[in-house]
Amino acid sequence: MAFIQVPFPATSQAFNDGQFGNPYCNEAVVCVVCGMVCKPTVPSALSEVSWDDEQRPGDWTHPSLVKAKPGFRAWCKDPSSATAYKRDDSDIIELFEVQQFRGGATGFVIVPKDENQDPRVSINTRDSEMFIPIHRACFRIAEQFCKYQSNFKINFRDLSRPNGGQPSSIGHLYEIWMKRARTTLPGLNGPLRSPITEPTGYAGALVKTSLWDYVHFMNSDYQKFQACPVGDSYTTTITILQRATKTPTEDWKFPYGEYRELQMRISKLPKEIVLRIAEALQPFHLLSSSQLVCTRVFPPEFWRAKLFGGEMIPWLFDLDESVIEQVSARLTATAPLNLPVSLGDIDWELLCRQLGQRNVCHRWGLLGDAEPFLWNRHRIWKLLSRSRLLHRSL
Known about the structure:
By secondary structure, the chain is of the alpha+beta class. The protein is built from 12 helices and 5 strands.
């Protein structure tokens, strides 16, 4: 269908689009992960808003729908579902492509999985396994989050523990999302005519019931929220390398004082114990400024491997070590990339500590002036890490 421009009404009142067969085209539906709206494929208030960004053209806010397969309630009651250590539960969840979205909870037309499935579906809180709105990019980040979380033995259903209720599989996240949908007013009342709520308010995202209330914000200083959170590995890697600093002089390359003794003790431990110590460092996040001081207990190769392996800073999951070789070739050719230091001189430990700062994406943080997509991904990763069963707050 070709888009046409819809004239804005004088106020942000509901817009009854009877001529297009859906009176709810301006009823807002938001992604359950990031809180940003899902853009209708029919003319709506958002038809006047430009969503393309320079690096990643295309409308990433087109909705998808996620839904558990039949038997999900039985899966939840199975004691084995409590943990997902080294396990992938993606086989119990399905992601549906939305062919047309006419706005509102009942405006979805999906690409059916089989010929017997009705393509017209809705966000209905009465369904045993309900459809949940999500952006495809946000679903990908959720998968990466669960892949990382599955490295730890977290009991999702033991709320007595400090990390109890914390998800480590896509099944856990879906259970949280469905509970949030059913506790959003008016609750178990059929099609959900309000955006699904989130305990932290989606970390600053604008959440309204009418798309008319978004128009001003989408055309103003809301660009970071609008940036597609999934970039390309080359851009992500270059952005990080451009902020690296040089390894200090020889006197500062080695541990000092009590750290020198600690290094000696660690060097004498069995390899299995050293691995356990390294695992205890993960992830590097919410660090204070005092933790910018490097200990030099582990060698630079350790920090580099942990960074590019997605273990130390997991939200930078698309860092690509092969880009270093590509960059080296370009630096020796004719196309400088504005790197502050030679790639062989990068202080990998300091870089990890800088990326692990709690304010890394704030104005004065290491990535404060970086690509907007990294800011938005960091916000989304924090939302996922704060997700808890039964809305348990941190």
